[in-house]
Q: What sequence folds into this?
């Protein structure tokens, strides 16, 4: 049974888990720069620890899982959809769903 003070959550890591987290971040940053061409600035230690906990802090297994996750985000253009939702919130007008599929944005509503 895992002690609550070292259960793999941020602030409650043992020394081995801290080292694994640092190695995982180094591996992921290398892959992001060389293989994916992907900006990881949106991820933090909380995100990385989710993958490590899911694979019981197995560095290789967590790296494979994260790689598949990034590929899924790229395949389904998750970041593009997120940007469209942000624009939708800022202009206060729902975007037509075809705009998402076709990559087009509707004209801004008149200010007034």
A:
């Amino acid at each position: 049974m895992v002690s609550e003070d070292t259960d793999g959550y941020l602030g409650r890591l043992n020394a081995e888990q801290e080292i694994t987290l640092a190695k995982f971040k180094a591996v992921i940053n290398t892959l992001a720069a060389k293989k994916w061409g992907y900006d990881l600035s949106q991820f933090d230690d909380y995100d990385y620890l989710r993958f490590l906990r899911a694979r019981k802090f197995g560095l290789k297994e967590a790296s494979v899982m994260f790689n598949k996750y990034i590929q899924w985000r790229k395949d389904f253009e998750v970041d593009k959809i997120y940007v469209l939702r942000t624009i939708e919130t800022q202009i206060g007008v729902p975007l037509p769903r075809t705009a998402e599929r076709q990559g087009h944005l509707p004209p801004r509503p008149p200010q007034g």
